[in-house]
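Hi W.,

Here's what went into the run:
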Amino acid sequence: MKLTQSSRGKWLVIGLPYFWLLVMLLLPFLFLGQVSVSEMENGGGFLKIYRHDGWFFKDNFIPIWNDIINGGTYRTAYLSSLYYAALTAFWCLIIGYPFAYFMARARKELQPTLLLFVMLPFWISMLIRVYAIKVLFNDSGFLVTSISGLLQRFGLIDDPLHVLGTPFSMMFGMVYVYIPFMILPLYSTLSKMDPRYWEASADLGATPIKTFFLITVPLSKAGIIAGLMLVFIPCVGEYVIPQLLGGADILMIGRVLADEYFQNANWPLASALAITIILLVIIPMMILNKYEEKAGEFK
Amino acid sequence: MNEQHRWFARSWMVMVYAFLYLPIFVLIAFSFNKGRPTHWNGFSTESYAALAKTPEILDGLIVSLKIAVISAIFSVIIGTLIAFVLQRYRRFTGKTLFSGMANTPLVMPEVVLGLSLLLVFKSLFKMEGGYLMIILGHTLLGAAYASVVIKARFSELPMAYEEAALDLGAKPLNAFFLVTLPLIAQSLISAGLLVFTISFDDVVVSQFLNGPGVKPLPNVILDNARQGAKPVLNALGAVIVFVVSVVLIAGSIWMQKREKKRNAEIAAAYRDAT
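Here's what came out:
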């Protein structure tokens, strides 16, 4: 094709976005790597590039790794980030898969509307929605007081319930915010599935449950994996929801990193923590890339 | 599906929708509450009056609007270029790196993006935090999302249109602006809207890149929400929900009408041709 063959134009068209990505993405990541093996300058914030004795990992990575091996704050933070991200992905799948399946099997003319009402919360500010959960779960809020009252009347609990600031309220918030990321790729795979597979399975005598688990689920593997990764990866670094709904005692790595930068002004350590996060999400990311194309366009 | 299954399917869907909308409805209901933001004390619009008198929130809104509009424009331009390159050039040196970089912002935790941008801007480019830094950060994120939306449109658009224009003697640039661009215009608009919302909603990248006096709305909300539930936030939330719903529902009705009209036109054209 001529448009893609004229070579001077071609290199300009490729060169512009390439330059943008190199300067805005690759350079910052390389620089992040460099800062992560640098010394912190006393007096806050500033840094000397590289250690003089060349023992690059000594200042930042070795303490982090030691901490991870010996069980300190960072281990707690990384483990709870991975744990809550995995749990969020799991619940999104359990709740979202049947939903996406029923949506894909609903009447064709109904589907755009059903989809619109899944997408609508997605367009409303995430912070406002998380704040709404805070209002909902407030100790003096109607939901908590009425459930508390009911349980107390039946003698199941002694003290009023306390929901806000617990792992439950944080998980609720994470599932709430991330479930559209699960539903959309699943819906996109399931709605493209040929209904004749289901009919064939039924004709051969399989029960609907059997068809679901032996035909539908395996055929939607690409969508499941894309959905799991799309929820899991951002959850690992989640910064806002743990702060608003998780309380002070749930330590997640995104917050530890931000504290290290903003409060302790330790750029090298914050960078080393960021590099470790990248290493944690790189493998899931590669799995995602492998399956994303199969799951089709869902954004 | 038999009757029992249909019943199960319907109740599952109703429950998920209830899950998605319950917090939002509670927020709207309590925005009309008197006094405390979580405990029903009677109807009042005082939290809306308080909202109108909170300059911090209005300032944040203006800051966010400026940033979101500019980021959306830049993101659509860069996103179009990225999508064009990914979709129209099958092979070139460094394509693997290019497509890898194009997708990275979608999957990288925002704290990592924010920190790495901040370090480069401050140390290498000697920039002070503020509008330019936030806009660049949001454009990095937004261009990645925009390119996904626009790429989808490119992939269903046959190259034949552009080729025909070139065969008829158009210069490549003219072919792009006169033929390709109008054909992908709708995806540019939806990409722009998507980036606008992403920028308007972003708190993490802004938190890292903001400077003195530049505080986008989400950062104002986060600071306030950290201190607990507040009546102004309920009112603000209700306003945001209202605006988004009206825009989105009106937009989708308009799109469906347009689709119908287009199908009717295509059908009419066929009738005339045969």
